[in-house]
Amino acid sequence: MVDKQGIKKQKFVRIQNKRAAFFTVSAIIMILVVLFLLSFVLQFSRDENANVLDQLLFGRIHDLDDSLQKSVRTIFESRSGISVSSNSTAVIFNEYLLNAQASLFNSRILELNDFVESKNSRVVFNEPVKENFTLKVRPYNITYKHIDYGQDILVVSETGYVDFNYFIYAKMNENVTCSSATTPGSFGLRVKAQGLGNSCDDSFLVNPLLNSSINVNNGALIISLNNNSLSINRAVDANVTTTLNLADAGSAALVVMPDVFRINFLEFGMTKQGDVSINT
To answer: Rg (Cα) of the chain, in Å, rounded?
Structure first.
């Protein structure tokens, strides 16, 4: 005889076991969902914190860079003895040779260097300006630098393709005579020497890769052009204006002192090279 009560009891037990298994699986799934959501929230929080930290660091670096640029630019404008101006078609440098302010400029930069590095270990100034004081004209890859700061000037086109021409204007405290030896080409070079009571003003079309020179007063001032580099060498005092007439007027020229300092947050993988804009 079939035990109906036993069969019902077995069915009930199986149903209860299935329910228990279902609730167990459901609970596990819920726990996994909660853990996933918790992990997502924690990761989101870490990302948000990282973004906030990045923004704070970028802000700190920007503020330091801006402050240092202003300080160096102020020293340049007041102590370098070099004036810089520009427009859409030209960059103009003016400097008195012999530049008596060169040593004072270097000493002011060193004072700023010592003061800043003593207050903020994250700022490191690069080697002092010293003899080869350099300015860069961007984006034209032109370098205006000194063979011996305070003495002579060297202007270099680093591209290997000269996309500008020169106008050199020198004022001297004596009468002047000029002679020239040039290599013909298509690159424009104009030199004007203004003396006490007379002047010479000559324009040439030369090959910038080959030697050309203009000699003022038998070596008192020599302007030479060779291998895409122009040099101005002096034996007497002269007020020299060097104008770079840019052939490509599509980009505004920016004159900078390159790589003056560095701002380091190395533990966060961040560093900033401090190029100081001069003609902002």
So the answer is: 35
Domain coverage including residue 166: 54-277
- Whether the per-residue pLDDT at 195 is higher than 50: the answer is yes
For the segment 156-186, what is each residue's pLDDT rounded down to a tens digit?
Answer: 877 665 678 899 999 999 999 999 999 999 8
Note whether residue 17 is domain-resident: no
Indicate the angle between helix axes 102-119 and 4-79, nearest 10 degrees. Answer: 150
Sequence-separated (6 or more) residues with CB below 8 Å from residue 132: 145, 146, 147, 149
Name, in order, each residue with C-beta under 8 angstroms of 110's C-beta and a sequence gap of 6 or more: 128
The dihedral sign for the CA sequence 199, 203, 206, 208: positive
Beta strand segments in the chain, E: 82-86, 90-97, 123-125, 134-138, 142-148, 152-157, 164-171, 178-181, 184-194, 199-206, 212-216, 221-226, 229-234, 238-246, 254-265, 270-277
Enumerate the β-bridge partners of residue 91: 86, 244
For residue 249, give the 3-state DSSP assignment: coil
Chain centroid to CA 14: 79
As for how many domains the chain has, the answer is 1
Residue 12 domain-assigned (yes or no): no
Residue at 13 is within a domain = no
Rounded Cα distance between 208 and 142, Å, is 14
DSSP helix/strand/coil, 51: helix
Structure confidence by residue, pLDDT tens digits, 28-86: 666 555 555 555 444 544 444 445 555 667 778 888 889 999 999 999 999 999 999 98
pTM over 0.70: yes
On whether residue 26 sits in a domain, the answer given is: no
Q: What's the pLDDT tens digit per position in 215-259?
A: 999 999 999 999 989 999 988 999 999 999 987 656 778 999 998
